[in-house]
């Protein structure tokens, strides 16, 4: 079925005249003179092939053809107005869908405050939140299956992505509460040399993994890794069983496990970064909105 080419001014003039049933009143409402209004109606009647209004002496009335066209004309104008409003809202970043990847540990730090602030500012935006470690987030950003990433220790070789640090935090030792070092307030890294380790696998966060290994190497030993776990919550749970010890970002202390002790480490100068990541080529206004929200400051930063 061919789509008719009906100029909007003709449809608008037709609907207004159908509501006023008076050429003079309709012309005044449209802000035009009466002859141009008559011309618009004539052109529309030529498209339809039938008269839409009676022109006999007396009141103007709709013909059967005009009565049939009026509901469709009103719907077309309403749908167009709704579509324009929706397009403007999406274009300005007020509505739409934003896909966010986040590292699980960030639920303990910046994520709640960020989501709360953003949802308050833009209630019409649907947030699709996906728990992902760093490497899968990078792949998802490049593959365009997420729009924003919140991750630890971004890589340096993803040149098509932009990164911005949103917080940094020190490392802590994660110990079973029964470990001899758990009685100390501060643990020297060299004291962990003989303890087995539970760590995240390098595949899920290469930079963070290498940073932890580097801390141990600088302290004079290579950690004996006996178990890997993808999430920090799992790492802590395995430490609680006595399987080993770990080094983790300080925010992990918010995981409350009775059998786990978190202790400051010496030297404690190294810090881990949390960054927001996005595609440099992405002009999605929702991404811009979220980055602006982060720039405004988050109440739950650790």
Automatic annotation (TrEMBL):
Pfam families: HTH_1, LysR_substrate
Source domain of life: Bacteria
Entry keyword set: DNA-binding, Transcription, Transcription regulation
UniProt domain HTH lysR-type: residue ranges: 6-63
PROSITE patterns tied to this protein: HTH_LYSR
Record-linked CDD domains: PBP2_LTTR_aromatics_like (cd08414)
InterPro entries: LysR_HTH_N (IPR000847), LysR_subst-bd (IPR005119), WH-like_DNA-bd_sf (IPR036388), WH_DNA-bd_sf (IPR036390)
Family: Belongs to the LysR transcriptional regulatory family.
Protein name as it appears in the record: LysR substrate-binding domain-containing protein
Organism: Streptomyces longisporus
